[in-house]
Backbone:
């Protein structure tokens, strides 16, 4: 029998699947995978129930339900004072991951380079490799902020794309004004360079408000933003997000999207269009800030060192004063002996850089967070 030659020989089961499976096996509290465990807004579920009996179960338009596209344009104008054309500059995607995949497949060519800032989400590299392009992984600083000197020294005429993630998963850090100034300078130096801005946690920021690619007019013609209804409204299983890009880039992305999924769940799109009329999106930040503050208060009684959490629903901590184990071994021991599943940060780094940091998801009900903290106090 001929052996199939893998296109992705180094890809194994993701750390998220590994830790979730271990949590199930050892009956541990799962603070590893980034999904909430509390109920949806009852208004959204009511909309969904009502719509289930309506004639909305056939294919949606390829780019998205017209009403939803218009609501996204309104949301973007309200949130960022950016006017976008719902017909030509917005694409509803089957989750942020599909949007990222379609973008890279559409815009990156063989042997071109794509900058990824580590630690990074694991869906960035694969579509680059499938383009026969070159992922260039650059470490963030130890405080998880961009190293602009290193980034500037690495980008060259063959660099097609830089992927930024703000607010940042796994660290919870967000970019400041100077970070965007440095990015704008790079685009002035390299006219071919594009920006893919992963902003799926854009509405979950705290004391320091999120600065978006949408706030930066200099970047609009060279950038693609990625958003996620799944993250914003804690409906991760719906797998629905959207892209915003100028028409000359969006036309190319749509060519891939139409042959990848063609269109996205019709019922979910109509439901979200109705929900956007009544939901108060700015209130989501205060909801998650209460979660963050509550969880940080609980962890204050443990031996962990809490790192800054400026956005997302993740809390990164250092366990350097607890153990000198590598972070993978430490997280596995946490599951087996303590009963709490987390994510080791080194798995987000191409070089395996290990600063003895792990990531907790605090998008859980209070009782779950209390039980987890009680277990973690045993360390």
Residues:
């Amino acid at each position: 029998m001929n052996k199939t030659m893998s296109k992705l020989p180094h890809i194994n089961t993701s750390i998220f699947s590994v830790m979730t499976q271990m949590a199930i096996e050892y009956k541990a509290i799962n603070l590893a995978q980034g999904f909430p465990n509390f109920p949806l807004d009852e208004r959204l579920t009511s909309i969904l129930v009502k719509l289930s009996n309506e004639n909305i179960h056939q294919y949606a338009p390829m780019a998205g339900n017209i009403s939803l596209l218009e609501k996204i344009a309104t949301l973007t104008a309200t949130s960022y004072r950016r006017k976008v054309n719902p017909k030509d500059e917005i694409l509803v995607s089957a989750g942020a991951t599909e949007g990222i995949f379609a973008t890279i497949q559409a815009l990156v060519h063989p042997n071109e380079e794509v900058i990824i800032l580590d630690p990074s989400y694991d869906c960035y590299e694969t579509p680059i490799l499938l383009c026969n392009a070159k992922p260039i992984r650059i470490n963030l600083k130890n405080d998880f902020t961009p190293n602009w000197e290193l980034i500037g020294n690495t980008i060259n005429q063959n660099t097609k794309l830089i992927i930024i993630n703000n607010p940042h998963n796994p660290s919870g850090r967000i970019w400041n004004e100077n970070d965007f100034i440095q990015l704008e300078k790079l685009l002035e130096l390299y006219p071919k360079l594009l920006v893919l801005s992963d902003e799926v946690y854009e509405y979950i920021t705290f004391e320091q408000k999120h600065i978006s690619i949408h706030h930066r007019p200099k970047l609009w013609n060279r950038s693609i933003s990625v958003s996620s209804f799944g993250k914003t409204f804690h409906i991760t299983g719906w797998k629905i997000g959207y892209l915003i890009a100028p028409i000359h880039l969006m036309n190319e992305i749509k060519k891939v999207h139409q042959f990848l999924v063609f269109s996205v769940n019709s019922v979910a799109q109509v439901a979200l269009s109705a929900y956007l009329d009544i939901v108060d999106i700015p209130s989501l930040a205060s909801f998650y800030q209460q979660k963050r503050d509550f969880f940080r208060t609980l962890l204050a009684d443990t031996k962990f060192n809490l790192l800054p959490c400026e956005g997302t629903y993740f809390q990164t901590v250092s366990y350097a004063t607890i153990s000198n184990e590598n972070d993978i071994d430490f997280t596995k021991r946490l599951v087996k002996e303590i009963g709490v599943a987390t994510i080791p940060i080194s798995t987000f780094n191409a070089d395996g850089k290990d600063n003895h940091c792990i990531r907790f998801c605090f998008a859980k009900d209070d009782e779950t967070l209390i039980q987890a903290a009680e277990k973690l106090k045993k360390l």
Observations:
- The first helix runs from residue 15 to 25.
- The mean pLDDT is 95.
- The two ends are 51 Å apart (CA to CA).
